[in-house]
């Protein structure tokens, strides 16, 4: 079901967060988080509900305001590097009633490459279809996105990210609410992207698959609890600090 999660040696840093702090009113959601995501790595962001995982990513991408701190991608402010970044939001955050076909959703990821008139070239149209085919979705290209199952919708949004050919792919709980076949298809594609030298950062909730799926991990509970290679960081002591003494059965001693 999974590819070898051993990290490949890649130079540089794809995403760097420094002192990132976010608040909702008077309540701090993320506090002074500093983290580094090496180029060519595949990192899980894990932590209990309310730990600020999704908030951290949204603040890094500039989708919500931050109180302080900085996010840089490939050495540049994130806003200047967006052409190299693809973002797959939580499925619950998407308006699935929007009247669009699956292929339309995928092609939306190509708007930075369509020029002033916004017209897709044949090569870009082929790229969008190839991205759907890679996720087993080519036969659903003309289906309304809202008519798909949850797993199919998630595959469609990942296909959009694939079509962008981004160097950094950021996903917010890509496996939440999907069936086993979809999860297997998604992780195979993500491992394939990593083998091509791309960087994957994903909010993840299933502790039992962290070691199989990811080569790095960031444990978060408003603050950074631990960060580093999965083999040395995803341990009982660090998980206990993030979650309390819960959910430890699948964690190495």
Describe the model.
Mean pLDDT is 88; it is low at 1-10. The protein has 253 residues and is an alpha/beta fold. Helix 2 packs parallel to helix 4 and helix 3 (122-134) packs across helix 4 (150-164). A hairpin with a 1-residue loop joins strand 9 and strand 10 (223-229). It has eight helices and ten strands. The protein has helices at residues 53-60, 102-108, 122-134, 150-164, 180-195, 210-213, 230-233, 236-243; strands at residues 13-24, 27-38, 42-46, 68-73, 76-77, 85-88, 168-172, 199-203, 216-221, 223-229. The strands form two sheets. A six-stranded mixed sheet has the order 6-7-8-3-9-10, with helices on both faces. It has a four-stranded antiparallel sheet with strand order 2-1-4-5. The protein is globular, with a radius of gyration of 18 Å.
Quick structural gist:
This protein has 253 residues and is an alpha/beta fold. It is 30% helix and 25% strand. The model is unreliable at 1-10 (pLDDT under 50).
Write the layout of secondary structure elements.
Layout: E1 13-24, E2 27-38, E3 42-46, H1 53-60, E4 68-73, E5 76-77, E6 85-88, H2 102-108, H3 122-134, H4 150-164, E7 168-172, H5 180-195, E8 199-203, H6 210-213, E9 216-221, E10 223-229, H7 230-233, H8 236-243
Helix pairs in contact: 2-4, 3-4, 4-5
List keywords for this structure.
8 helices; 25% strand; 6-stranded mixed sheet; alpha/beta; 253 residues; single chain; 10 strands; 4-stranded antiparallel sheet
């Amino acid at each position: 079901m999974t590819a070898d999660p051993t990290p490949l040696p890649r130079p540089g840093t794809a995403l760097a967060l420094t002192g990132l702090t976010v608040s909702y009113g008077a309540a701090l959601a993320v506090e002074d988080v500093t983290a580094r995501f090496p180029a060519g790595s595949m990192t899980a962001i894990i932590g209990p509900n309310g730990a600020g995982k999704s908030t951290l990513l949204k603040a890094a991408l500039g989708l919500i305001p931050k109180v302080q701190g900085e996010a840089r991608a490939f050495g540049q402010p994130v806003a200047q590097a967006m052409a190299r970044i693809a973002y797959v939001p939580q499925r619950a955050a998407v308006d699935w009633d929007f009247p669009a076909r699956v292929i339309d959703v995928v092609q939306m990821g190509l708007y930075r490459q369509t020029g002033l008139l916004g017209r897709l070239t044949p090569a870009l149209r082929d790229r969008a279809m190839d991205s759907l085919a890679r996720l087993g979705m080519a036969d659903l290209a003309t289906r309304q996105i809202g008519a798909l199952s949850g797993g199919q919708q998630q595959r469609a949004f990942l296909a959009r990210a694939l079509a962008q050919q981004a160097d950094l792919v950021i996903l917010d709980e890509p496996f939440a609410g999907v069936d086993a076949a979809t999860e297997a298809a998604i992780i195979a594609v993500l491992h394939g992207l990593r083998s091509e030298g791309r960087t994957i950062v994903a909010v993840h909730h299933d502790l039992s698959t962290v070691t199989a799926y990811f080569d790095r991990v960031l444990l978060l509970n408003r603050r950074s609890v631990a960060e580093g290679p999965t083999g040395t960081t995803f341990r009982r002591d660090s998980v206990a600090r993030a979650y309390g003494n819960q959910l430890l059965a699948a964690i190495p001693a």
